[in-house]
Specification:
alpha+beta, Ctag/Cox11 (Pfam 04442), 2 domains, five-stranded mixed beta sheet, about 25% helix, flat
């Protein structure tokens, strides 16, 4: 009888350890996948950090004569009550040359809402060639009820972009962020950076 109880107890312990291990592995898959995508550019995910200033200065010294077209797209996730769109839908840019465009956001809700933009590049393998010097996607953005904002994206495409690529797309999906109560929310520095952007920059 005691042997049976001991065996049952062992089985319960083993199954509990396996369940906890599987749960931990499931949670670990997301950050591991993010790291994998960031390193390889698969799935079009781009880096969540600005490029190194030293790299930028080197790029500025050697822009290429080759030009490509980059398209800008925007969409909002479920439950996100913002108007969100690019101020220009496409640009023709030279490889190695830093360019700036803007996205427009307006909070249509009756209360303040915080959002986080997630970028992606199409085709996916071009993601590692598109480098963001400045981007509103690096931080969360908070808008009061009815408030709007122009948000800059400063980027360049390196001259290692495959020769068969002539057009690529930079897309942002904006998600609503649930901020825990009691934690102060601060506006991103993008608000100051974009304060000089006028309505004239809103090109359809």
């Amino acid at each position: 009888m005691n042997d049976t109880r001991n065996n049952q107890r062992k089985h319960v312990i083993v199954l509990s350890v396996l369940a906890v291990g599987m749960l931990g592995f499931a949670y670990a898959l997301v950050p591991l996948y993010d790291v994998f995508c960031e390193l390889t550019g698969i799935n079009g995910k781009t880096s969540g950090r600005a490029v190194d200033p030293t790299t930028v200065s080197e790029v500025l010294l050697k822009p290429s004569d080759r030009e490509v077209t980059i398209q800008f797209l925007a969409q909002v996730g479920n439950g996100m009550p913002w108007e969100f769109r690019p101020t220009e839908h496409r640009l023709k840019v030279r490889l190695g040359e830093i360019n700036t465009t803007n996205y427009y956001a307006r909070n249509r809700a009756a209360q303040a809402v915080t959002g986080q933009a997630v970028p992606s590049v199409t085709p996916g393998y071009a993601a590692k060639h598109l480098h963001k010097v400045e981007c509103f996607c690096f931080t969360q953005q908070r808008l009061e009820a009815g408030e709007d904002l122009y948000m800059p994206v400063k980027f360049y495409i390196d001259d290692d972009l495959p020769a068969e690529l002539h057009t690529l797309s930079l897309s942002y999906t904006l998600f609503k962020v649930q901020v825990p109560e009691g934690i102060p929310e601060t506006l991103s520095s993008v608000r100051e950076a974009s304060s000089g952007v006028t309505l004239a920059s809103n090109q359809q």
